[in-house]
Structure formats: structure tokens, C-alpha cells
Task: structure prediction
Amino acid sequence: MSDCNKDGCSTQNASSSQDCCDSGKCACGTNCGGDPMACAQQLWCSSFSEALRQVHVEALKVRIQKAWGPMIDQGADLVVEAMGTMWQSKMAEAKSKNDLKAKMAALMFGKK
Result:
């Protein structure tokens, strides 16, 4: 018996030489029916759309940085400052917990 899944086809347990992708499910994620030409066409079309989307994203990044860059930079500075303070607080809390643990162990096991 053959298996078709999103990760590709498995014919390890196939009882016939029939293509496991006859169900229309292929590793490319489309309904190419296992036809390599249809599969390639779908992959190229999908890749083109993704590349075009990435170009749009990059174009917007440049314009956003130009229009709002200084404000975004100030916001980033504020976030880094606040997160740094919070991180230092967490580190101090962790140190206190470890110190208490060590002191309790010393008390329980008679170490001074």
C-alpha cells in the first residue's frame, strides 16, 4: 500500500507499481497529480509570487525607515532600556534564589 502525505510520497509498502501521487497530493503541495511539468509550473508560479512579495516588503522597509526612522529608533532605544532593566531585575531574583538554595543546603547538611 502506498502513502501520500504533505512531506512527500512513500512507496516502501506499495503493493503495485502505481505512482503514489495518483491521489493528486504531491510534495509540492499542489494538486499537480504527480505530473512533473505541472509540479514545476506550480513551483515557479509560487516562487515568483513569494519573490514579488519580498520585493514589496523591501520597498516598504526603505520608505518606512525614511519617513519614521528617527521615531522608530527612539522607540527601539526605549524598549532596549526598559528590557535591560527588567533583565537585570530577573538576574537579581535568580541570584537571590540560588543564594537561598545554597544557604539552605548548607544549613541542612551542616556546611558553614
In short: The chain has a mean pLDDT of 82. The first helix runs from residue 36 to 109.
